[in-house]
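Ticket opened by: R.M.
Priority: normal
Category: complex prediction / small molecule

The reporter submitted a protein together with pyridoxal-5'-phosphate and asked that the result be attached to this ticket for the collaborator who will pick it up next week. Submitted input follows.
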Amino acid sequence: MMSEAPVDWDSLTFSMTETDFMYIAKTAIDAPWTPGEMMPYGNISISPAAGVINYGQGLFEGMKAYRTNAGRVVLFRPEENARRMQRGADRLKMPPVPESIFIDAVEQCVQQNARWIPPMGKGALYVRPLLNGSGPVLGVAPAPEYTFMIYVTPVGPYFKGGMSCINLLISDEHHRAAPGGSGGVKAIGNYAPGMMPSKNAKAAGYAEVIYLDAEEHKYVEEVGAANFFCLKDGVLYTPELTGTILPGITRDSIIHLARHMGYEVVEKKVEAEFAMSAEEAFCCGTAAVISPIGSITLGDKTATYSDGVTPGELTLKLYNALTNIQNEIDEDTFGWVHPVPGLE
Ligand SMILES: *Cc1c(COP(=O)(O)O)cnc(C)c1O
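Result attached by the on-call engineer:
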């Protein structure tokens, strides 16, 4: 039995804490994947000519394992992360990792790092799968060797002391993704270009930027690295998946939940102006689940939702419905919760 993890559970944030073990599997470009192995967490060595560090041939995933009300450790829809990484692998010309190898690897990482899973309500074990071209390649072409790797780190709850509304700035200068590009997959290269606009927005007092589409500069695409929703006249709207928007698993879950609650949910292009005239708005992703939006600024116009600090009624309802399923407080009618073997 391992000793208790050296973590102060009450001061956890969304940041990196090294844990005990990581998973690594490798394959040659034309060989099938075979299961990898667990090894002590630590630095890896890589060729300076690796495809991933020269040409960005890499993908990441993000998911959480947490202790629930039922006294066990669960993952949330991990099959969806596996499938999304397969779609990304196709796009970046990498060999897709079979779903069974992916799930088995995630489970092993959670099992072997179980002492790092925060107590219920104190956060989660964040699981970070990576797939990249690790073999050397000089010309712009797929690498000869691929590495599938997973590390985990404990993270705190996103909101401490209740949900708080965020203020957002619409970017009129930068775009996250263009039609035909890689915005619809979790390609590592999609994220660094967002750091400068995001830093600038933060320096100006906003929590994050909202990106508009790169063609017409008119439609809301995403909030930083989170999906967008708004409620207008009792109908819930979210940008449709046109290839430039990342198909979030939280997004998909919210669409199902809202429809199940009897709401009409419309996936279509959402004009910035329309979003700014809505009654409620929020963004969503694995890290925060749901972040209520207090205001959106575009140029010299600011739209404030309700009083700007109180989360909307439906926003709260969806947050509670989703987290109650995740925490096994409510019945998992959709079959989304995936118990980790051995931690039940
Ligand atoms: C990961 C991600 C999301 C959220 O996806 P989830 O599966 O809900 O965590 C949304 N947008 C972008 C750009 C992302 O990278």
